[in-house]
């Protein structure tokens, strides 16, 4: 790979393929694979990721919002797209783009039926979400009769799947809770089938669900973070490959005398002669202020250089006193060795937040 000449997020599609195949290897051949590409494909570039996964015959995509689904359609994606958290104001656009909504309460179910009637739809595919303990979005078990009544009054929609979401699939201390969510969902599915009279697809597993609860793979699984190379455990992190590397370069090097300060509010004060490097990446690029003042670090020539002082909007300064480097040299924020999860841990957050925070102004490059 050529050295970075500006701040770039490098996406390794070979690693994406590896992760997809690894996760698929955990499934029965008949279990469908839904790739979650919300939030710009977890920061990677949803269209590129989706295009590539389409060549690998992924079965489904999911995004959070309707606009994200429209972007995929504009990029030529033909695979079905589930919209996890649609807003009624955009239903016309959802229908025009053949996106499939998750419907999670009475209000949105009725609003969608109204929209499909106005648009003269018949049997439009929808996905009904049930709450089994996350208490975020979803109908409750005892809403099945209401759903059935509502469905029996319209021919505009058809339920393609029913699904739920696990609250703590990565946390094996919560195994009893998760097992109970799975059990509840299976009961909901049975009652739904009995009441409504047909059998939609069933799905409940996210990435950690795939890895930790094989009995819950059902008809389809929904994987996000695993595709991007994180398994939420030391063992699974070894089986997966982070696909994104965030790199930049050294803009300027300073020699700082004892007692001088670095950056805004003079948050860092040098206790001796030190060398700092200024880098073109800041909190507007996704390196939040929580990484400042010695918490986060970057890698230069294989060595750790801690962030000194406050993170600026477009820049950070790092301590390179003991590193033999020069202006223009490459700097690594995270890659497959020093991962986004390592960076996340310095500021008490998770890989999900680090990779989705990478600003859209940073150029994405791809390794095929
Ligand atoms: C984001 C999301 C996923 C993907 O979760 P990962 O832990 O990234 O695999 C799956 N299902 C729903 C409903 C989600 O919101």
* Portion in strands: 15-25%
* Average predicted local confidence, pLDDT: 98
The rounded distance between the terminal residues' Cα atoms is: 11 Å
Bound molecules: pyridoxal-5'-phosphate
Level-2 CATH architecture of the largest domain: Alpha-Beta Barrel
Number of strands: 19
The H-level CATH homologous superfamily of the largest domain, spelled out, is: Alanine racemase
Summarize the structure.
This protein is α/β, with parallel strands linked by helices and 368 residues long. The chain contains twelve helices and 19 strands. The protein folds into two domains: 31-228, Alpha-Beta Barrel (TIM Barrel), CATH 3.20.20; 244-367, Lyase, Ornithine Decarboxylase, Chain A, domain 1.
Note down, in words, how this protein is organized.
The protein is an alpha/beta fold. The protein has two domains: 31-228, Alanine racemase (TIM Barrel, Alpha-Beta Barrel), CATH 3.20.20.10; 244-367, Lyase, Ornithine Decarboxylase, Chain A, domain 1 (Beta Barrel), CATH 2.40.37.10. The protein is 30% helix and 24% strand. It contains twelve helices and 19 strands. The chain has helices at 13-24, 38-42, 46-55, 66-74, 91-96, 106-118, 144-152, 175-196, 207-212, 234-239, 340-346, 351-357, and strands spanning 8-12, 32-36, 60-63, 81-83, 99-103, 124-129, 157-163, 201-203, 220-223, 244-249, 252-256, 261-262, 268-269, 274-279, 297-300, 303-308, 316-319, 330-334, 363-367. Strands 8-7-6-5-4-3-2-9 form an eight-stranded parallel β-sheet. Helix 5 (91-96) links the parallel strand 4 and strand 5 (99-103). Helix 7 (144-152) runs parallel beside helix 8 (175-196). The radius of gyration is 24 Å and the shape is elongated. It binds pyridoxal-5'-phosphate. Residues 36, 38, 84, 165, 206-207, 222-226 line the site of pyridoxal-5'-phosphate.
